Amino acid sequence: MARRLVPITLDNLDDVPAPCRSCAFWERGTRVADQPAKDDWVASVLLEWGRCGRLLYVDGAVAGFALYAPSRFVAASPALATPRPSPDAVVVMTARILPEYSHSGLGRVLMQSVVKDGVRRRGVRALEAYGDLRGGDLGCVLPAGFLTAVGFKTVRPHPRYPLLRLEMRSVLSWPGEMELAVEKWLGQLRPDGAPVGAVPGQSPRAGSTRA
């Protein structure tokens, strides 16, 4: 099984699986399909900050993806009562492993790539993410159980969508149990909700000829 991780750019954005390809929940605060909004958002983040996501391929086919960015680029929060993420954190907006690739260790590979990207960025001290305590009607939000299983801790409680934080210094060496938890939870994610600085030396337009 040959696997490959690449940054998300405008050139490969169409490889993000549906319905996530056109969902503009995090970018514009709406779940109405809006493919141009997704394109404009990725172009803006690439230009101002650099890479903002990862695509995972297995034998040339898309197996999963993750999107993340500083809080200033994240328009939505799952609940209006939830405070905004911290300015020193990268927000993990969403991540998914396609069902046919679940339980193969790819969830661990995908999430570790997000962590490694965050570690390399100047001024980034943590990853933050909204968690869903119940699951169901908003599949864009990662399960809170997954986030706590890989080391995130609640920093701003909410009855449904707490904000959780993972300090970068705590993830330089994950124990095996956390790696297995990543695989388990990301392999179960479905888009319908079922069961700060740039990288040093990187051009913000790298990897994209259209941004």
> According to CATH, what is the topology?
Aminopeptidase
The mean pLDDT is 79
Number of domain units: 1
Q: What is the succession of H and E elements?
A: EEHEHEEEHEEHEEH
Based on secondary structure, the structural category is alpha+beta
For the termini, the CA-CA separation is 32 Å
Question: What's the architecture in CATH terms?
Answer: 3-Layer(aba) Sandwich
> What Rg is obtained from the alpha carbons, in whole angstroms?
16 Å
Q: Would you identify the CATH H-level superfamily?
A: Gcn5-related N-acetyltransferase (GNAT)
- The count of β-strands is 10
- How many helices in DSSP terms? 5
Work out the helicity level: 10-25%
- The level-1 CATH class: Alpha Beta
Low-confidence stretches: 189-211
Largest sheet: 8 strands, mixed
Beta-strand share of residues: 25-35%
Any idea what the shape is?
Answer: globular
Give a description of the structure.
The protein has 211 residues and is of the alpha+beta class. Helix content is 24%, strand content 26%. It has helices at residues 25-28, 35-48, 106-120, 144-149, 176-186, and strands spanning 3-7, 23-24, 30-33, 53-58, 61-70, 89-97, 126-132, 142-143, 153-156, 163-167. Strands 1, 4, 5, 6, 7, 8, 9 and 10 form an 8-stranded mixed beta sheet that branches. A two-stranded antiparallel sheet has the order 2-3. The model is unreliable at 189-211 (pLDDT under 50).
